[in-house]
Design goal:
The complex is a heterodimer of chains A (131) and B (93). By secondary structure, chain A is an alpha+beta fold. Chain A is 55% helix and 21% strand. Chain A contains 5 helices and 5 strands; from the N terminus they run H-H-E-E-E-E-E-H-H-H. Chain A is elongated. The two termini of chain A are 35 Å apart. The chains are: A alpha+beta (131), B alpha+beta (93).
């Protein structure tokens, strides 16, 4: 899907004109770009987050010729997919996937209940790792 | 920046919306993107970047805490490939 197809879909689903839908979609990505340029991160619940990562200079190589190339320090945007979208993309919405998360919540509750449960904590943690 | 900040920008720059209307429209944009990515299709936003769904093969892995070997199952992941325009904008000055 391209940006213009996204605009068409948004227009159809919201009843906006294509012109106004385009202004909205463009404003969204423009403001996200501006935030990243200022070094600000972006967090969209259920979708993901964008952060700017700084990379040091390094000596790289042209893979075709083998020539050494100096790569100057740079900044790159990094996208971390949100939990909801990650699960939807992976198509795993079955109960088996939901259960470990429920157990974790249970384990978390036990942790906060008091120090009496602490010897059991390790076992619970281990079983989570195996899953 | 959060979604609320984006909604505010949309109100300021596009105009003619109440906060609530703008919030619903911004939600619709992200929900549309999620629905499309869920089908395995990619999204190309020129000047910003591409959201691409990749199929990963199963591979052997290891629990770093216990050293126990486990199989990492085949899965689908979402990656973001920033556009050259965005990369250049970040590295200006």
């Amino acid at each position: 899907m391209t940006k213009s197809e996204l605009i068409e879909r948004v227009a159809a689903r919201t009843g906006l004109t294509k012109g106004r839908a385009e202004m909205v979609v463009s404003t969204i990505f423009d403001s996200m770009t501006e935030a990243l340029v200022q070094g600000d991160g972006i967090e969209i619940r259920g979708f993901g987050s964008f952060t700017v990562r700084t990379y040091k200079a390094y000596e790289g190589r042209n893979p075709r010729t083998g020539a050494v190339v100096h790569v100057p320090p740079k900044k790159l945007p990094f996208f971390k997919v949100g939990k909801d979208l990650r699960e939807r993309v992976n198509g795993k919405r079955n109960p088996a996937q939901v259960r470990p998360a429920g157990e974790k919540v249970e384990a978390e509750r036990k942790k906060s209940a008091g120090s009496r449960t602490s010897p059991r904590r390790r076992d619970e943690k281990l079983s989570e790792d195996v899953i | 920046m959060t979604k609320a900040d984006i909604v505010e920008r949309v109100c300021d720059r596009v105009g003619g919306f109440s906060k609530k209307e703008a919030a619903d429209i911004v939600d619709e944009v992200f929900d549309s993107m999620k629905a499309v990515l869920e089908t395995g299709d990619k999204i190309k936003i020129s000047g910003f970047g591409n959201f691409v769904v990749c199929d990963k093969k199963p591979r052997p892995g290891r629990n770093p805490q216990t050293g126990q070997e486990i199989m990492i199952e085949a899965r689908r992941v979402l990656t973001f490939k920033p556009s050259n325009v965005l990369k250049a904008a970040l590295n200006e000055g």
